Recover the amino acids of this structure.
């Protein structure tokens, strides 16, 4: 290698080392960086500063102008309100025999939009809830915010479902209505719907007295949508929701209901049972389609029994709306001979007849214009009392004629005929 070339190379390297520390006007800074690189670094620093300023401005705008809107959205996602129902009041007969009461149950809700692999979960839940997997899978695939998965499940079922750790589950305390005497007075007592509202009978007529109160419980949700109790008190309520379902097979209805709001009926369940048993036998003997009737206390007018056959069991699922019909109250029919005592009472009230007088019943045949009034059991001269006892059509017709059509009409109207009963 030539000596001169080596000398020149060493000279250039020394000159380069000195140039690294020369002023930037020669194209290098004090660190040995080129002028272009300095410009690029400064541009990056400026961009970062602008981004930080924009971020601060955006945060300020959100805090100053849009805070309420975003706050409401956050609360909607992370907070919820759970309605906790009190038990519905019970129904008893005149002797305190319970005819309807509420039993604690747990109902199962789900947030389908939080569920992944619905096919897998539906198979597991179907074994616990005793429902077809296809039904459960359809609910889990609905992608709605909330859906009922099962209503009124037992404590054992609730515990098994809880152990699956399915995301989006909600255990909500409800009450199931029980009718311990089954079909006895079934149409009279009626039943309630899934949401606790009366559908028929006493349950509907006195729903305003029997319906359960409720209160709101404010709760938080976690990232998976699960309810989180923010306090020890509310956690206790959560635990009680499952614990309450332990009284689900037998239990003592007296301790499970609000006794101060119980509804006591005038009917006597023993008399009601006898009447219904006779109706069942009568239905078999006469091959009739239906038998119904009422037993009243003659002194007070209280209803002791109000029965119809066939009846239905309100504990069983409703097959047809016609089952809810109470023929004694809802069906209309001609009063017939039941109207005779009322006509006699109006005659006495208006002093057009006396209890001790006698009336000629025409041997059971009496013509008025083109109409012939006849008696099944013909009478001649009969007393006022005999006319009622023998149910004489002719005798009551003559008494009604004394009243005249105006007094007879207004009298019958005053007794409630032709008016709504309010039932």
């Amino acid at each position: 290698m030539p000596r001169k070339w080596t000398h020149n190379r060493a000279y250039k390297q020394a000159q380069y080392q000195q140039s690294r520390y020369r002023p930037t006007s020669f194209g290098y800074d004090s660190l040995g960086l080129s002028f272009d690189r300095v410009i690029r670094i400064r541009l990056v620093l400026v961009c970062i500063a602008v981004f930080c300023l924009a971020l601060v401005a955006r945060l300020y705008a959100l805090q100053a102008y849009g805070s309420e809107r975003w706050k409401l959205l956050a609360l909607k996602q992370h907070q919820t309100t759970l309605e906790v129902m009190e038990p519905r009041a019970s129904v008893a007969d005149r002797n305190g025999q319970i005819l309807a009461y509420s039993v604690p149950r747990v109902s199962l809700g789900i947030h389908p939009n939080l569920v992944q692999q619905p096919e897998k979960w539906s198979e597991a839940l179907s074994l616990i809830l005793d429902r077809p997997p296809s039904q459960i899978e359809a609910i889990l695939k609905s992608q709605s915010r909330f859906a009922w998965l099962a209503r009124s499940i037992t404590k054992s079922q609730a515990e098994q479902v809880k152990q699956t750790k399915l995301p989006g589950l909600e255990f909500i305390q409800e009450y199931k209505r029980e009718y311990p005497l089954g079909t006895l007075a079934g149409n009279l007592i009626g039943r309630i719907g899934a949401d606790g509202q009366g559908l028929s009978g006493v349950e509907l007529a006195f729903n305003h007295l029997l319906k359960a109160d409720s209160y709101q419980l404010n709760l938080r949700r976690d990232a998976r949508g699960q309810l989180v109790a923010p306090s020890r008190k509310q956690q206790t309520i959560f635990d009680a929701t499952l614990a309450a379902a332990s009284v689900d097979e037998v239990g003592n209805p007296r301790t499970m209901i609000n006794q101060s709001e119980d509804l006591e009926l005038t009917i006597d369940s023993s008399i009601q049972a006898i009447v219904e048993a006779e109706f069942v036998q009568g239905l078999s003997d006469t091959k009739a389609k239906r038998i119904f009737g009422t037993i009243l206390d003659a002194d007070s007018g209280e209803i002791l029994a109000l029965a119809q056959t066939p009846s239905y069991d309100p504990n069983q699922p409703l097959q047809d709306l016609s089952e809810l019909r109470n023929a004694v109250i809802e069906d209309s029919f001609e009063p017939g001979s039941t109207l005779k005592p009322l006509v006699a009472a109006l005659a006495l009230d208006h002093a057009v007849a006396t209890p001790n007088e006698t009336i000629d019943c025409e041997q059971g045949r009496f013509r008025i214009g083109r109409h012939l009034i006849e008696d099944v059991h013909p009478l001649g001269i009969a007393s006022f009392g005999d006319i009622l006892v023998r149910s004489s059509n002719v005798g009551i017709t003559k008494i009604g004629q004394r009243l005249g059509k105006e007094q007879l009409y207004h009298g019958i109207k005053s007794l409630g005929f032709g008016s709504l009963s309010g039932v």
Notes: The two ends are 125 Å apart (CA to CA). The longest helix spans residues 35-64.
